[in-house]
Every structure is written in structure tokens, then in C-alpha cells.
Amino acid sequence: MNKYILDQKTPLQRFFYSLYYYSLGFLLRVLLWLFKQIAKGITFLFRFHGKVLHFLAFWAKNKEVTEHSAKEDLILNWHQRFIVKMKERYQRSVDKYLNWTDKNTSTFLVNNAIYFVIIGFILYVIISKPNFLSTQVLMNILTQSSVRLILAFGVGGIIILQGTDLSLGRSVGFAAIISASMLQAMDYTARFYPNLGTLPLIVPLLIAMAVSAFFSAINGFVVSVFKIHPFLATLGASVALYGILSMYFASGAPGPQPIGGFDPRYTEFVVGRITIFGFEFPKLIIYAVLITLLMWTIWNKTAFGKNMYAVGGNPEAAKVSGVNLVKTTILVYVLAGLLYGLGGFLEAARIGSASNGTGINYELDAIAACVVGGISFSGGIGKISGAVTGVLMFTIISYGMIFLNMDVFWQYIIKGVIIVAAVALDARKYIIKR
To answer: Which end of the chain has fewer surrounding CB within 10 Å, N or C?
Structure first.
């Protein structure tokens, strides 16, 4: 304790200062010391990891490996280009970890704090309820994540454009009602369309996707042409869309009541199982995997995907480079609408019914999952893997809280805290970059 500081204070101030110094202040200093020791340990592990990579990789020892030029790239065939790029990527990884510092560790810990907290919670659930690790629980988590993942891909593209979509839930609800109303069993008494014959599954699916894409296209047009903030544009669209879907919901023959009694073909197509190499997998998981591969290709291997990242990262630079901002924005919203329509089609069969309340707050879960997964509101930043990670984490947390018999109100509180923390960390990264 600094004696000079104490001499400048009154006896009462010295008393409380000493009390703080030897109680709470001491505890805080101990925690800070522990944090520094942990950071040093993590720094050592990263450096050790770099040394291991350097020792094991034969190309890491090759001092001639450098960034190759575009001209050299043309000379190499696809196999040689792949090998060279892998060597360069590996060498950059080795250099990164060999030169890792305590500052890098602090940044790493702060930027990924939300992941550590979530992983800690998951470990607590596993320790408290060991049956949480069962195969059945894993399949349930993956099944519940499937539709959420498809929706997250849709809104994720919009977030990359520095936007958001509050009409997601209503679009999903409308698509679910359309699908459910057209795919009821013929012998079901309270049919929405009493005289409608048996339809191929593809027909309601295409109609649901087309309707969702249409309303999303309007959102994209309003945002890109009239420069209305996406929050306000999609908020208004959400309210209007709820009115439209409620009118449609009430127009059925039985009146405004939940739509159920689905055609067995529809139920089997969505919630059925498929056997692969002797293992049974829910079809929803297979659909989610296929959509994930498709979206990864669109985001990373097409001109449209590159334009999306360009517009989200720097709209002015993208415009100068020849990218059509209006067209790109509208197409991103249309793609999101198509995914909402598909999600609504699958969700109705998954839960077994549809009403004008279907899809409520789905937009919050999808947006939160994207942000937790590293898709930044600052624009131009985000990966498919991030959306997958965010959705799985949120689903695991929800399932874990149910396993712990946690009150539903506490579940809302915890989810809200995670969302705020994720957005705060995302904003911090953006501020630091600026």
C-alpha cells in the first residue's frame, strides 16, 4: 500500500481505503494475477503449437515457399495450385503461432469470451446430467437446429449487407400456413380447402417459397432504392405481413383455427428417417446438410457471393468496381425469402400444425445465432461455418436449460444476455478496426 496516498486522506478515508485494499481490492488483484498467468500459459501453448507445426510440416522448413504471383498461378495446373496454396496457408499459420504474444492472447480471450462462457455452460450441463451426451439427445439437437440453420443462412446474407430482417418470423409463418393448408389429409374433417385434391409436395413448397421471396424482394427494393434503414423497413413489413397472413389464416373453411391433419406423405418427407450405411438419420438433418453445402457454394464460389461481401464491406468501393448495389441487395433478400419459404414448409410438418402464431420470434433466434457465429453487423464479415456454429450453440443452450429444468423466464434472460454480449463484442471488434 502506498504510504503517501494514505497520508493525504482523513482517518475515516484511510480506514475504508485499507478495508478495500485488504479485502475486495486484494481479491481483484489475485484474479488479475490469475488471468495474467492463464494468458501466459495460453501464449506458451500457441507458441508450442507453432513449433510443433514447424517441426512436423515438411514445407514449413522450406525457406523458398513464398506468396506466388498471379502470373505463376496461370502456369500451374489445378493440382499444383492447390498444393502451393496449402503450403502458403500452412506457412502463414506457422509464422502466426511462432510469433504469438501476450497481447494476441488477451485479444483472443476477449473476442471469444462468449464462446468460453457457452462452452463452460455446456460442460456444466454434461457434468450435472451425463445422459446429455446420449446419441438420442444429439439427434434431437441436430433436428431442432436444421430449420433454424436454414433461416440463419437467409438472414445471415442480409446481415453481411449491414442489414437485418425483422419480417423473417412472419414470412416463415405465412409459408407454414400455405404449406399446411394445401397438404392436409383427404379424410381430415376440418380441411382448409375442402374441395382441393391431392397435390404433389413440390407445388405447395414452390408456392410458399415464391410468396416469401416476393415479400422479401419488396423489402430489398425498399431498402436499396429508397434507402430506408433495414430495421424500419422490415419492421413495417413484419406488421403488414402479419395482417395478410392472419386474413389468409381466417379465410379457410373451418375458420381461424390451427391447421393440422397433414397428408402422411408430407409428414414422412419432413420428419421421416433415412438409413445411411446402417445408421438412421432424420431427413431434416440431411436437408440441412444439403442446404449448407449449397449456401457455402453460393457465398464462396459465385460472383453473386463475392458481390454480396463487397457491398456489405464497402458499398462505395463496390459501386466504383461495377457492382450493381440495387440488384445485389434485392437478390440477397430474395435468396433469404426462398430460404424462409423452405423453412416454413419444413417447420409446419416438424411441429405438426400451423397457425398465425407460427414463426413468432424466429427472427430473434436466427439473428442472434448469426451474431454469435461471427457474422458481423459491420458488414462484409461472416462465414457459413459461423452460422452453423451459432445455431448449434443456441440450440444446445436451449436444450441444456431444459435438461436442467430451468424456469422458462430464466431461459429468456440467459438468451438475452448472450445476444447483448455477442453484439457488444462484435461492436468492440469494429471499433478497434476503425
So the answer is: C
